[in-house]
Amino acid sequence: MAIFSGSKSSLSNQKFTLTEGSEAKKSQNSEEEVFYMSCRAAYLSVFRSSLDSITSKEQLCLVLQQAGRNPSQKRGEKMSQEEVKTIIRLADVNNHGRLDYNKFCRLFIATKEQCLKTAVEKLEADGKIRQQQFGSHAGKSPEGTASSASKPSPRTPKKTGLDSIPKKVDRSSRPSSARSYKASISSIISMGANSAKNSKLIEPNAIKEWQCAQSKGCFFLEENNEIITHRYRLHIPQKSTVHLTIKPLNLSQIEGKPSQWISVDTALYVLKEDDYEEDLQLVCFTELRNKETFGWKGEMGSGVYWLIPFTSGCRLRKKRKPVTAEAKLVYRDESKDLVLTKEFRAVLSDIFDIIDLDGNGLLSLEEYNFFELRTSGEKCDDDAWAVCKENFETKKNELTKQGFIDLNLMEANDREGDPDDLWVTLESMGYNRALEMAEACPFIIDIYAEKCKPRIKAASLEAGSGQLEKAICKSVILKGEAKVMDGYEHVIIHTYKSDTRITSVVENKSTNKVIIHVNNEQSKNCVSNRGLNTFAVEVPPKSQTVCQHVMPLNEHQEWIYNCVQNIIA
């Protein structure tokens, strides 16, 4: 999207400059990713896990050599006669006992590149095994609840080809029936078909007389199945009974045909700062349900709370169905002027409704910047926003829907109709090339307070953090059923069930890490957020880790959760 400064005549140049800067930033990010991948590949070619530490000079040398470096035991130790002879033999072109310097340089560079290539190929092969072994969350931090929050970045299309898939993979490390297990726990839960008649979430009788605050937001699905979402600060001025809800936002204009993401599960975790604890403490979460709405009712003291939206990932997942035809975004009319297609205008209208967080029909600078951060990684400053308001339709110093659409038309004109940048924006917002929102789920939050006026404000847009993981683990441990592994009293499996979701957490109280093999093959009418029926979970010492979330494939039919969890020997 465009960032503005100066006057209308300078909008295009300013935008082009910033786009170049954004591309340079993306290129820099790409180089950093390659560098990180190379370092990680080298590290894991020597160690079994990134949790392992370098404990000797010899191990450090091995890692550096795999990274294509050539360290000596002392950064200057003399080579032995045998080592010199070996190098001369390799680089001796004419076999006359002399070193060919040019060949030696080529050999050195080729060896360095081959070491690095071998390490990266091993990492990619291990990654595929890990996908099979550890499920779709393999790329996340292994520290479980201790993992740090990551910052969102603009999404860019990634190319995937057959060449990137390893041709041969050693299956010996994959969990199977042939592996030996030290202990196991079996959990079988039979769940009936859900019905609207069995609603547990009931609105207070006089809720229309309560004061209300509302905000919208969105779950965005990343390439690695990580989910990015808005986070909120909630201010309760005085002690009051509070009723809070979250549900998917229906944007469909057709009666009886809701938006396709309406079945995505949502939840809201409420956290509060504690004077005596460093971390935020769990206050409550929305576990009651009425159709697609999840809610909670209770008493809340005065103060500031953090609201963290959550979706399990069972239903908001990558779609395997390919898009056969790409939608058209722009065309030229009889006057050769560029025009947005009807379909693209409708999508822009929906996007506007999603990023209009307070629902007042206008975009403030703050709301627009959440959109900018998601789609380009940049922010619009006050001066640029002032120029935007001068050149596009505004009301009350905020951008109207027509102004937002015209802004996108200007971007199309800047690129002379080339839709590539427009597609980057659309894909960042979760749309596929058929203009279907397939990798995002907008939602709406309502806060009702009986005795005061609540205030809610979006504070950030980020991926799931350690705080959310801790909140989920704590809620499952507090409300779920606990089973201790036979012979391993320090390893506990906690299982929580609601009408629509079952979540299991592994608690490891021991001083050693454990690996839990999970088998869901006997479950019926179920889908796991891991994306696999069998996988493994690595749990660091003295920690708790979410094992999996499970939901019914078809809510109108009975579903059976049948899970066997084993400690791998």
What can be said about this structure in brief?
The two termini are 53 Å apart.
Main attributes?
single chain, 569 residues, alpha+beta, Recoverin, domain 1, Immunoglobulin-like, Jelly Rolls, 5-stranded antiparallel sheet, 10 helices, globular, metal-binding, EF_Hand_1_Ca_BS, Miro-EF-hand_domain
Structural class: alpha+beta
Overall 3D shape: globular
Topology, number of strands: 23
Poorly predicted regions = 2-10, 14-19, 135-178
Estimated radius of gyration? 28 Å
Q: Roughly what percent helix? A: 25-40%
The overall pLDDT average reads 80
CATH class of the largest domain: Mainly Beta
Protein name: EF-hand calcium-binding domain-containing protein 7 isoform X2
Biased composition (Polar residues): 144-153
Organism: Microcaecilia unicolor
Keywords: Calcium, Membrane, Metal-binding, Repeat
Structure commentary:
- This protein is an alpha+beta fold and 569 residues long.
- It folds into four domains: 27-71 and 79-116, Recoverin, domain 1, CATH 1.10.238; 181-195 and 469-568, Immunoglobulin-like (Sandwich), CATH 2.60.40; 207-318 and 441-464, Sandwich (Jelly Rolls), CATH 2.60.120.380; 330-438, EF-hand (Recoverin, domain 1), CATH 1.10.238.
- The protein contains ten helices and 23 strands.
- The protein has helices at 11-44, 57-66, 81-91, 101-134, 342-355, 365-375, 382-391, 401-414, 420-428, 466-479, and strands at 181-191, 211-221, 227-236, 240-248, 267-272, 281-285, 288-290, 293-300, 303-310, 330-332, 338-340, 394-395, 398-399, 440-449, 455-463, 481-485, 488-497, 502-508, 514-519, 526-528, 534-539, 543-552, 559-568.
- The strands form five sheets. Strands 2, 3, 4, 5, 6, 7, 8, 9, 14 and 15 form a ten-stranded antiparallel β-sheet that branches.
- β2 (211-221) and β3 (227-236) form a beta hairpin.
- The longest helix has 34 residues, at 11-44.
- The protein is globular.
